[in-house]
Specification:
The protein is an alpha/beta fold. The chain folds into two domains: 122 residues, Aspartate Aminotransferase, domain 1 (Alpha-Beta Complex); 226 residues, Aspartate Aminotransferase, domain 2 (3-Layer(aba) Sandwich). 42% of the residues lie in helices and 14% in strands. Strands 2-10-9-8-7-3-4 form a seven-stranded mixed beta sheet, sandwiched between helices. α2 runs parallel beside α10, α3 packs parallel to α4 and α11 runs parallel beside α13. It is globular and about 60 Å long.
């Protein structure tokens, strides 16, 4: 490989949220990669930094073109320039859109288990969380369309936040599934807000489908949040984009993010996406292979050494969703035990909604030897937990 993803980069004492943990704890939780980002991005930032003046920044045509070209080439979706708006992050965008396009006490629909910050964006703005749990048959997750339509038909439901691809279960929604969601949303006057931040982190040979690309019905009734931040490990640069094909919706979203003061970029938030989307595709292609091998390493190890656990098959993200039902119904207690007794920090599944109570989420975006160290700690911790709870 051209790029060295095996390097152990020391992130201690760098004010890293992920690595600000107790001594001897291995963090495999928050969705943050341990890899150095693509060389072209680092070079672009260093070049801009060497200028030495960091004033107010505007969006050049290159920023728009970078997004347009990437989505057309990678995802077969032609985005018009006027559809694009800058935002400081996907989460600020989601919170702003919830505030602007719904009213207090209305329902915002989500499909649990799902990214935990969705709950914050809804509840912190005085709206109600309405869950439509994904159907889990013990092997895979599917959409319960009967329940979904029932929840959409509630007159108080005005917005649905879609996670595409889905975090934490790693599901890539098919064109047919997305079209059906779009049809139900249009029928029941529910706007779709699609979080597509993990879209480029698919397994080799797998492609995600942008919700707004499915058909005109989906495009005209949706707001999509995209960003290079998860893909290229630059979340700390605070950069994202919002795609809104419908002009009336776009006006409302624009007013929302400008009112909330999250629509102006810093100098590096402009340079990084341009370098990512125009000069870093080969880095991403190698990364996807490496992440796929990491996930396979985890699956194979757990299958061989920890058969009481089950890793849910996934096609996207570097996050693995682990079913712990045979060990403990409450994975929160198990996560605490693993941290205390094995020095392994994983995310407890209940953060992603009640259907995740018996699950743990593992971040595999780290070097291979750290993956193996994490698995060794997991094996030690699980066996010790079972022994102590006989």
């Amino acid at each position: 490989m051209k790029y060295n993803f095996d390097e152990n980069i020391n992130r201690l004492h760098t004010n890293s949220m992920k690595w600000d943990v107790d001594e001897n704890v291995l963090p495999m939780w928050v969705a943050d990669m341990d890899f150095m980002t693509a060389p072209a991005i680092r070079e672009a930032i260093q070049t801009r930094a060497s200028h030495g003046v960091f004033g107010y920044t505007i969006l050049p045509d290159e920023w728009y073109c970078a997004y347009q070209t990437w989505w057309k080439k990678r995802h077969h979706f032609e985005i018009e320039k006027e559809w694009l708006m800058f935002c400081t992050g996907v989460v600020p965008a989601i919170s702003s859109i919830v505030r602007k396009l719904t009213t207090p006490a209305e329902n915002v629909l989500i499909q649990t288990p799902v990214y935990n910050i969705f709950f914050n964006s809804i509840l912190n703005n005085g709206r109600k969380v309405l869950e439509s749990p994904l159907h889990f048959d013990g092997e895979k997750y599917e959409i319960d369309f009967v329940d979904l339509e029932e929840k959409m038909a509630d007159p108080q439901t005005t917005l649905m936040i879609l996670c595409n691809p889905h975090n934490p279960v790693g599901k890539i929604w098919s064109r047919e599934e997305l079209a059906r969601i779009g049809s139900l949303a249009k029928k029941h006057h529910v706007l779709i807000l699609s979080d597509e931040i993990h879209c480029d982190l698919t397994d080799p040979g797998c492609e995600y489908i942008p919700f707004a690309s499915v058909n005109e019905e989906c495009a005209s009734n949706s707001v999509t949040c995209i960003a290079p931040t998860k893909t290229f490990n630059i979340a700390g640069l605070q950069t994202a984009a919002i795609v809104v094909p419908d002009s009336n919706l776009r006006h409302k979203v624009s007013r929302g993010i400008n009112t909330d003061e999250v629509a102006e970029p810093n100098v590096f938030a402009v340079e990084a996406p341009i370098a990512a989307f125009t000069k870093s595709s080969d880095w991403l292609d190698e990364l996807r292979v490496y992440l796929y091998d990491n996930k396979k390493t985890v699956r194979d190890f757990i299958h061989e050494h920890l058969s009481m656990l089950k890793v849910i098959d996934s096609e996207a993200t570097y996050l693995l969703w682990i079913d712990c039902t045979k060990v403990m119904e409450d994975a929160t207690e198990l996560a605490c035990f693993l941290k205390e007794h094995a020095g392994l920090l994983l995310s407890e599944g209940e953060e992603y909604g009640k259907p995740g109570k018996a699950f743990l989420r593992m971040n595999t975006a780290t070097s291979r030897n750290r993956i193996l160290e994490g698995l060794s700690r997991l094996e030690k911790g699980i066996h010790e937990f079972i022994k102590m709870n006989k």
